[in-house]
Amino acid sequence: MGIIVKSRAELATMRRAGTVLRDLFAELVTVIRPGVTTGELDGYIERAIIDRGCRPSFKNLYGFPGSACISVNDEVVHGIPGNRVIEEGDVVKVDVGALLDGYHADAARSYPVGIVSGEAQRLLATTRAALDAGLAQARPGNRVAHISSAVQAVVEEAGYAVVRDYVGHGVGRDLHEDPRVPNFASGGYSPLLRVGMTLAVEPMVNAGTAQVVVRDDKWTVCTRDGALSANYEDTVAVTEHGPYVLTR
Ligand code: MG
User: What is the residue range of 212's domain?
Assistant: First the structure.
């Protein structure tokens, strides 16, 4: 399909969608608590998005049943909301998209529930720092590989592993556009970043092995060794002034 560059007007629309996600994530700090099911959480997210004039990007995409992907502890991504009860000490990852006036914004946050282990706190902080390092590279003249390498460096310096099987992506009229945005240096050709490109950068970071398995439900991706995983994602626009994060 090729990389689609957006106009200033298109970026403004995506920024409005991104703002909806930003505000939703702030609310979820108090919504995500012990005793709430992931299905109830998904219902809250769906209503919040619709109430603000957007549509949940993920609902029915490729057949996904939820409005958000909700992944707990060793679940990496694509967790299906349902009857699972959130417990004290869990790490809950919420990945959600908002579609507004024909354009998507895509973002994810990891939430510690109550008191989590020191190791969990360090994993979350590292993943967030890796995302920040990647976003900072989203400037004209760089290549996608600059983002990938910056993410990988932060993760591996902390002794953690970057998931290889799932990557970030371009985002715009389609939730998933070119280019692929790996969280690791993959070698070979890497697209040049140009003004108006919009990317979803989304490191998935495991405390143990990088390897993952998909559950029998055909969606939920888990760490193969059962270790904890974290994920943060933001949609960023490449501008002449540097990275413009649309979902913060
Ligand atoms: Mg994404």
Answer: 8-245
